[in-house]
What does this fold into?
Amino acid sequence: MRKPFFYDITLRDANQALAKPWNTDEKKIVFAQLLKLGVQGVEVGFPMASEMDFESSRELALLTAALADKGDKVAEVVSIAGLARAKKEDVQRAWDAVKDAPHPRIHTFLAMSPLSIENVLQIPPEKVRQTAIDAVSYARELVGDKGDVEFSPEHFGDSIENFDWVLENLQLIVKAGATTINLPNTVERYRPMILVEMVKKVVDALPKNITISVHNHNDLGMATASTVESYFVGATQMECALNGLGERSGNTNMYEVAVALHNCGVEMDLKLEEIYETSLLVSKWSNVPIYSKAPLIGLDVIAHRSGIHQDGAAKTKNMKKGAYRPIDYSLIGRSENDILEFTSQSGKTAVYEILNKNGYPVELEEAAELQPVLKEISEKEGTLPHSRILEIFREKCCNLNGRLVFQTIDVIPEENRFVFRFRKDGVSQEESISAEGPIEAALLLSRKIGLPVELNSYKQGVVSDLDKMWAGRALSEINLSANGKSVIGRGVSSDTLVANMRAVFGGINRLYRAGSGELGVAGVKS
Ligand code: KIV
Ligand code: ZN
It folds into this structure.
């Protein structure tokens, strides 16, 4: 299958719509990124529009030549184009600007829709035809063997009633020397399929050596769809802009087209892994923020908040194709894929994933216990940041608000004695236990107060540095059982002994539900 030819129009179409169009230095920054991205064509400006645009176009053409001389592979092959109205002086100006590039191109255009001919150009159709042919012939004369000529019938998408006439024009324009015919949907008004059928008719009618290009504006939000589908009916050149910038609601977004084609198995020379960095750079220099929900590049598009989506995302997180993501985001250079955020809509999977990611290896069952607690808090507070979830987890799960509330332990080493102060079912108590060590003492205490537990295993560590607030503190994990059920009790403290005691008390709370006298796993709610 033929590879798509990505022709970037950020430095021309997008630039002309910026509140502050770029000067040469600013264009150079974006241009360098375009080369990194590996586009096949760059429309560097509209040289007749201003002295600044002429200068910047010329500088970029010279820069491309210098880079090609040094062996830059993209610079060696990239087409550098200047836009020109179908007027001799515009065509000349465009050529003067880009002629030193290794592959210069003149892109000339003239409106051909009934609405524009009648109301904007206000000239007879025969004159439109001849003007376009003359401009292309002149451009062909100028570029000679070194460059090529692109022609656009502006408002092609509006040329429904006079389509046959436009097609004849294009055939004559090809004879006059254009080798790329670009079909702009200058204002998006109708269905993508109407446009795509028109594109297909042009593909079928023109000689096979002519490149058919599409240039879709995004007035109704369907430019990507129109561009992608046009590729599948034979258009090869995709005129797109970085971040979808451009007049009104912009031009076709290059990233969306590239990723959609990639997902459909189309090979291309674009370096997709440069996309995310490119989008940030373009947003910075254009002063146009990226909408948080913008496909692929928006900050929020990798976040999952609903329980069902979080569950699917977690179950497929290590797979190439995720249940709720269009791509593995490393494809476009993003470092994260599925972010789980906790709100009142979220489920136990989010709690499980968030706690595990932050250094607390809880079981799904424990996460399920905490979820309703977090949900209630989130109904009041909205999204709970990870730090808040950890805070609630430590408060509810690790030790405190269960049936047993650990307060202090005094160690009397010379007597091998441990004095516990705690509350049981709301009543403050003190017990003195003789034992070899504090954990043994805590287990003996559990028997003495009628909540016996057995120790299965014990692990001592530190809170991971992901948990910023508590990083470095002692983390005890004690596996306890009673009546055939086992749980993990956790305790955190800057004092290892206190962490151990909190872990034992937390485990007892998880095994014995307050009030019911039954064995239970809840214990998270006070
Ligand atoms: O949108 C348009 O029609 C254009 C042409 C100059 C190609 O930008
Ligand atoms: Zn345009």
Remarks:
- The two ends are 65 Å apart (CA to CA).
- Residues 303-395 form one domain.
